[in-house]
Design brief:
heterodimer, A: about 375 residues, abc type-2 transporter like fold, 14 helices, elongated, B: about 325 residues, alpha/beta, Alpha-Beta Plaits, 2 domains, 6-stranded mixed beta sheet, 5-stranded antiparallel beta sheet, 15 strands, about 40% helix, globular, disordered N terminus
Chain lengths: ~375, ~325
């Protein structure tokens, strides 16, 4: 028995070694994806080209605009003389943000709350979101500063309102996407992709080549064949996960607050289900490219609906319902919980339970399917 | 299983394979129809038939990977229904697809199959060395199987099926798509194995290969239509004279012979006609005389040995003969 199982495992590792490009890719992909999501797709947009229509020309207005520029989020590129000019710049796309300061800015600031109009080009939601967030927080900050200033003067307690009221006209459901948010999701997506695709391809390739036939005729047991294929697959998946964690932690300063053994252990529960999906794909696909396409199809909904890229809370009810039957949804909660919040087993079980049920059911069905496939 | 099957399945009765009324249906289609087969130990048994005749289905049942719908069978004394897993460890199997891992080297392929077939660790290196010698793969041990030419791949596939020294091997069309020289080398190897005592059951539709077998079993539409050594089948089962004729107007000669009731079958083979006559009937001289009487200019007519193909086709009813010949031809040079 050990001889047969080891034989399969050893053979799978030779395949991996011979196809070294695929192996390198398997380990490089998580790193590349981290860099892409963590760096290139930096959704905290900075130095947004901004057009200004300052109707007041006051010192206070200049101070406010300086503060905006100092925040790094806005770059004051255009100083306009009319509303129309400002609108045109935004329409053309030269400026993404317009700031309109009313003529009575200084006076109103002195008396009560001042109003600044910030126009955001919401056709690029990521830029819009960042600009809105930055402008809002700036408004609050400046208000505080001015309150402090007023308090130092003589007129104590004269103003109770917030002096700056930055009104933002475009609105977008704000979310927070950054390396820290994306890394845990990436780990889940990677494990899923590797286990489904690699599992399916390794079985389909043997069927295509006719070697599966030879194995069926041989005294090898089905569980030996299955385990012999699963073990190397799991090792590669864990290798990818480790790689992603190392880069995330040391390059992107993602904190790892919880227990790594717990994370690795629960990843196994998740992969039971995904390996099962891989086995189903291998039963359905006739050729290797077919298997790859089918595998891709199975994890497409997971990528979009699991909360990997977009928060589930912002989805329509139907999509939220779908998300609740996708195993990656629960695994992401677990990964985020362990890595970012440092929670332990006790707090994770509401997410673990559906994962466990899914894993056991799908894996068992897949093993039955696998046995039938070999008859 | 019936008592009769059990009696015929004793391990020391001299038979490696025994089946009684073995039947396999796929839905309504009967792939193997009450097949009763006996393969003696140590013989080279050729299983002949066109595609779809039921050869592969029979082999799969004998290998223990397909359950019979009806009937009984034993392989090396083990019941194919009750203990198929035990059979698997004792037999070797090679299919026309060769079942090699292209990215594994010669030695890695052999090592893999040695492990799968549980060759004890201590014996492994020795067995693998023997196999490399048998397949004449010396010097290519570190070459990847995908880089080998057809003949080498074929012999490597054979040795992968032999690495655990099985007493019985099943070869399912092992020479399909391999060049004639490699085919001959391959048959020399399996003839040698049979002479050393390994029982070999080989399916083929190459008639020249069939002549090399100790015993032939003809299978057609799931039934065994004849069985015996090539010589016995020719002299006793067949007993029909075969004549080759060359004439000026081959087409007219063929048409005339076709209508003559002494003739069972007329075939055009390149520039001559091959005529199978009805049993105990007539010979070359009579055929020539008949044609001349009809005004055909006959260049020559000889009595010839019947080929295995002739034998095979003779078992098929007259309307189907042409089609079966065609099928056999399509599969490769006879």
């Amino acid at each position: 028995m050990a001889s047969r199982l080891l034989g399969i495992i050893a053979k799978e590792f030779i395949h991996l070694r011979r196809d070294w490009l695929a192996l390198v890719l398997a380990l490089a992909v998580p790193v590349a994806m981290l860099f892409i999501f963590g760096w290139a797709i930096n959704t905290d947009v900075k130095h947004v080209p901004t057009a200004v229509f300052d109707q007041s020309g006051s010192v206070e207005a200049r101070q406010f605009l300086e503060a905006m520029e100092n925040s790094q989020y806005f770059a004051m590129r255009y100083w306009t003389r009319s509303h129309a000019e400002l609108t045109r710049l935004i329409d053309r796309g030269s400026a993404k943000v317009g700031v309109v300061i009313p003529p009575d800015f200084a006076r109103r600031l002195a008396r009560q709350a001042a109003e600044v109009q910030v126009i955001v080009d919401a056709s690029d939601p990521q830029v819009a979101t960042s600009a809105i967030n930055a402008a809002s927080s700036l408004g609050a900050q400046r208000s505080l500063e001015i309150i402090t200033k007023t308090l130092e003067g003589t007129t104590l307690g004269r103003r109770t309102g917030v002096p700056f009221d930055v009104r933002v006209r475009a609105w977008y459901n704000p979310d927070l996407v950054s390396a820290i948010f994306i890394v845990p999701g990436l780990i889940g997506a990677l494990l899923m992709q590797t286990t489904i695709t690699a599992m399916a391809v390794s079985v389909v390739r043997e069927r295509e080549k006719g070697t599966l036939e030879a194995l069926i005729v041989s005294p090898i047991r089905r569980w030996e064949l299955l385990l012999g294929k699963i073990i190397p697959n799991l090792l590669v998946a864990y290798g990818q996960m480790t790689m992603a964690l190392i880069v995330a932690h040391f390059v992107f300063d993602v904190p790892i607050r919880g227990s790594l053994p717990l994370l690795y252990g629960l990843a196994l529960v998740f992969m039971m289900g995904t390996l099962g999906i891989g086995i189903f794909v291998s039963a359905a696909a006739r050729t290797v490219p077919q298997a790859m396409q089918m595998a891709f199809l199975t994890f497409l909904p997971s990528i979009y609906l699991s909360g990997l890229l977009f928060p589930i809370e912002g989805m329509p009810t139907g999509a939220q319902y779908l998300a609740s039957i996708i195993p990656l949804t629960y695994f992401l909660r677990i990964v985020r919980g362990i890595i970012l919040k440092g929670v332990g087993f006790g707090d994770l079980w509401p997410s673990l339970l559906p994962l466990l049920v899914f894993g056991v059911v799908i894996f068992s069905l897949a093993v039955i399917k696998f046995r039938k496939q070999l008859d | 299983m019936s008592a009769e099957g059990a009696r015929g399945a004793g391990p020391d009765d001299g038979f490696a394979v025994v089946t009684e009324g073995l039947t396999r249906r796929f839905g309504k289609r009967v792939a193997v129809d009450h097949l009763s087969l006996r393969v003696r130990k140590g013989e080279l048994y050729g299983f002949l038939g066109p595609n779809g005749a039921g050869k592969s289905t029979t082999l799969r049942m004998l290998c223990g990977i397909l359950e019979p719908s009806e009937g009984t069978g034993s392989v090396l004394g083990i019941d194919i229904r009750r203990e198929p897993e035990r059979i698997k460890a004792l037999i070797g199997y090679m299919s026309q697809r060769f079942s090699l891992y292209d990215d594994l080297t010669v030695v890695e392929n052999l090592t893999f199959y040695a492990r799968v077939y549980m060759v004890p660790r201590a014996l492994r290196a020795e067995r693998i060395a023997q196999m490399i010698q048998l397949a004449d793969l010396g010097g290519r041990e570190r070459q990847q199987a995908g880089a080998l030419s057809g003949g080498y791949r074929q012999r490597l596939a054979l040795t992968c099926a032999l690495v655990h020294a099985p007493r019985l091997i099943f070869l399912d069309e092992p020479t399909a798509g391999v060049d004639p020289v490699s085919r001959r080398t391959f048959w020399a190897v399996i003839r040698h194995l049979a002479d050393e005592g390994t029982t070999i059951v080989v399916t083929t539709h190459y008639m020249d290969e069939a002549e090399l077998c100790d015993t032939l079993g003809f299978i057609y539409q799931g039934q065994l239509i004849a069985q015996g050594s090539p010589a016995i089948i020719k002299t006793e089962t067949f007993r029909k004279p075969v004549v080759e004729v060359d004439a000026a107007d081959l087409r007219r000669a063929a048409a005339l012979l076709q209508d003559w009731d002494a003739v069972e079958e007329v075939l055009r083979v390149s520039t001559r006609l091959r005529v199978v006559l009805a049993q105990d009937h007539t010979a070359a001289a009579d055929v020539a005389a008949y044609l001349r009487r009809q005004g055909v200019e006959v260049r020559w007519a000889h009595d010839v040995e019947p080929s295995v193909e002739d034998l095979f086709v003779s078992f098929v009813d007259k309307e189907r003969k042409a089609r079966v010949r065609e099928q056999l031809r399509a599969l490769g040079p006879a």
